[in-house]
Amino acid sequence: MNPWLLTAIIVVLVVAVVIKRRIGEPVNVRELFGAPVILTGIGVLSLVKMTGVTGTDYAWVVTGSVLGIALGALRGTSIELTHRNGALWQRYTGRTFLVMVGSLVTMAGFNFLAMKMGMHESARPIPLSVGVSFLGESLIVGRRGMLSGIPFAPAARGR
C-alpha cells in the first residue's frame, strides 16, 4: 500500500478516536485493544518486509516501541474513567492532551537522536509507533477499569 495513503488513513482514524474519547465513550474490550493490536501488527509486518533493515535499526525500533508504550501508559493515567449507564466510560481530559503533546515532543527528540545515531528513516513504520502508543494507553485504561469494579460495556452488536 502507498505509504502516504496508509499515513492518511491512520491520521483520520486517530483523529476520530481522539474526538470520540474527548466527548466520552463506553469502554469495551474489543474497541480498547482491537485497533492498537491491529496497528502494531501492521507495523511489525511492514518492518519485517522491509529490505536493508539493520540490527541498529531493530535496536532503535525496539527501544522506541518501549518508549511509545510507556508514554501511552502515562497518557492512560490521565484519562477520566466514570460509571455511566451501567458501564465504564472513558473521556480524554485537558491533562490527556498535555501528555499527548509531551509525548509527541519526546518521540520527535528520540527519532531525531535515532536518525543521528544511524537508524534508517524508512525503518520507522508509523502504524507501529501509533499502535504501541495506543496499546500502552489501553493496558492502563483496562487495568484501571478492572480495578474500579465497574463493568466494561458490552461490544456493540452487528460489528
Kindly state the mean pLDDT as a whole number?
Answer: 92
Tally of DSSP helical segments: 5
Indicate the low-confidence ranges by residue numbers.
Answer: none
Structural class: mainly alpha
The amount of beta strand, in percent, is: 5-15%
Terminal CA distance reads 25 Å
Across the major sheet, the strand order is 1-3-2
Could you characterize the architecture of this molecule?
With 159 residues, the chain is mainly α. The protein has one domain. It contains 5 helices and 3 strands; from the N terminus they run αβααββαα. A 3-stranded antiparallel beta sheet has the order 1-3-2. Strand 2 and strand 3 form a beta hairpin. The protein is elongated and about 50 Å long.
Which secondary structure elements does this structure contain, and how are they paired or packed?
Elements: H1 3-23, E1 25-26, H2 29-49, H3 55-77, E2 80-84, E3 87-91, H4 94-116, H5 126-148
Antiparallel strand pairs: 1-3, 2-3
Helix pairs in contact: 2-5, 3-4, 3-5
Keywords: Membrane, Transmembrane, Transmembrane helix
Transmembrane segments: 32-51, 58-76, 96-114
Protein name: DUF1453 domain-containing protein
Please give a handful of descriptors for the protein shown.
transmembrane helix, DUF1453 domain-containing protein, 5 helices, three-stranded antiparallel sheet, transmembrane, mainly alpha, elongated, 3 strands, 159 residues
Summarize this entry quickly.
This is DUF1453 domain-containing protein. The chain is mainly alpha-helical and 159 residues long.
